[in-house]
Every structure is written in C-alpha cells, then in structure tokens.
Amino acid sequence: MNSRFVRLPPSIVALLLQLTATLFVFLSISLSGLHPTPLASALLCGMLAAIFSRIAGMAPWWLFIQFVFAPALVLMLSLDIPSGFFLAAFLVMLAVYWSTFRTQVPLYLSSGKVWQALETKLPAGQPFTFIDLGSGIGGVLTHLAKTHPQGRYLGIEAAPLPFLWSWLRLKSSGLRNCVVHWGSLWNSDLGQYDIVFAYLSPAPMEALWHKARLEMRPGSLFISNTFAVPDHPPQETLTVDDLHHSTLYLWRM
C-alpha cells in the first residue's frame, strides 16, 4: 500500500476513499446540472473509489469491494427491506468477521483437497502436535484428528461465530485429541508444536514469520496455505488441484 496510508488499517483507508469518491461525484453532479439516476450515481462512486484504491496500492479484493459497495447499497434500499433485516445481517457479519478490522484476516475455509495434502506432511506412526492458526469452523482440525489420531490438535480462532461453530463441531464429533480456543494467534506459544499451519492473508505473514522463527523448535514444520512469506522462499511447495488452485508453502525450521 502507498506509504501515505501504511499506518492506517485497510478498512479505514477504504472508507476514506469511498467517502472521497462519493463527495467528488456529488459535487460534480451539482456543478454540471445533470440529474443521473441513483444507481448511475452509485456506479460512478464505485468506479471512482476503485480507481482511488488502485492508486493507493490496496489489495485487489478491495478494488472489487469498493466498486460494488455503493451500487449494492442503492439496490438494497430500492427493495424496501425492513430495517430489522439489516440489523440482523450486521450482527451476523460482526460475529463472523469480528477481528478482521484489527487483524486484516478474513474468514477463509481450506478445501477438502488441502486437508488431504496436509495429511501427507504429518508424521506417520508417532505422536505429534499440530496447531491451526485461525482455525475457522474447524474443518482442518476434525479431518486430521480423524485420519491421524496419534496427533494432538489445537485450533485458535478469534471470531465468535466460527469459534462457536467449531467448538460445537468438535464436541459433537467426540474427538478427544482435538480442542479449539477462542483468542489471538499472537498469544500462542508456537514452540509447543511440531507443525504450525496458517491460512490467513498477506497482511500478517511477515510478522507471523518472525514469530515462527523466534518460537518454533528446530526441525518443526511451518505451513502456510496460499500466502507466502515475503522475501523468504519456501523450502517446498505443494500445488493442490482444488477450485482455487491452492498452494501450500512449507518451511522446516
């Protein structure tokens, strides 16, 4: 991201750029004397916000969000949906993306083929410990705990609804070698684990790498799904034939 914005969270930068685009469009409309439809005005706002975001160096997915935000808002308002629906939707989104504002890590779900690829990197026939940083709804944990019961598994999840989902999922599965905790991955001591797995976003990878290098034991394995560590090439990569063509990046500490 452009250095002028680097100290601000991307969500704040996106909001400021969206407001700037909206102000620019409405001033232009007022000065020109034109009377475009609300949807046309919203499309102009979205297009301009996406352009501003590109200039600011925001990640590609922010460009899409910036473009669709204002048109989606206009379309939703035109449907005359009861306000309670929006409140309920906001509360659900808050429960799912509780920590995204601070961590810049949205909810990503690993595919079943990624789970199978991870199986190949687990020790065979001997005990080991495995931690999933940002474990979401617990898919990785429950799958591996069943296929490799000799391991002990821990998931860390900061968002309330995914944590609750995964906690109930583990309780109902009856798995005794697997637990999930609600909290921050930054408070976890990675030195306790043989394998550290993460599926986060580009934003925290540099800091996570430094944490892993500081805390993980020699010989332990650090695996990142999709997101590499800047300036630190992995020792091994696994390309997964799933919908997103996921890549696992592996470093032996």
UniProtKB/TrEMBL annotation:
InterPro entries: FAM173A/B, SAM-dependent_MTases_sf. Coiled coil: none annotated. GO terms for molecular function: protein-lysine N-methyltransferase activity. Keywords: Membrane, Methyltransferase, S-adenosyl-L-methionine, Transferase, Transmembrane, Transmembrane helix. GO terms for biological process: methylation. PANTHER family: FI06469P, METHYLTRANSFERASE DOMAIN-CONTAINING PROTEIN. This is Methyltransferase type 12. The lineage of its organism: Bacteria, Pseudomonadati, Pseudomonadota, Betaproteobacteria, Nitrosomonadales.
